[in-house]
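agent> step 3/5: call structure_predict on target 'YeeE/YedE family protein' (Aliiroseovarius salicola).
agent> reason: downstream docking stage needs a structural representation; sequence fetched in step 2, passing through unchanged.
tool.input:
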Amino acid sequence: MHLIVIFTTGLIFGLGISISGMANPAKVLNFFDVAGIWDPSLGFVMGGALLVTIPGYRLVFKRTHPVFSEVFSLPGTQLIDRKLVLGSATFGLGWGLAGFCPGAALPVLSTGNQDVLIFMISLVAGLLVARWAISHQARRHETGPQGQ
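tool.output (status=ok):
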């Protein structure tokens, strides 16, 4: 049952991305082009998502635990730190330059579009570099300053 719910959720998300036109990077880029051919439809898609998500979260958190788990998986902190800001900025820059966000790029992969393939390869490479940098920084922090 758990896998059916995951599949159905992904299918609904992919259909929503496709039907709304958000799988088209030109449409997304036009949203960011406020001085040119501005297309506000992405704002309406986001607003519609919020209209569903906000009451959905309120309903879900009235439960003692999720349907398929014993506990809710929530962030351990609400701290806005350098990693969060840099990650958000990188996400926004990538989205604004490529016209794809990771979630919307997944359904487009099935089209064979080379642009989305390049985007996904770059995304994975960026994730690996970020993971390496974080672990490298943690190792340097554990060993302390050099020469001591």
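agent> step 4/5: record observation. Helices lie at 2-20, 25-32, 41-60, 82-98, 102-109, 114-143.
agent> proceeding.
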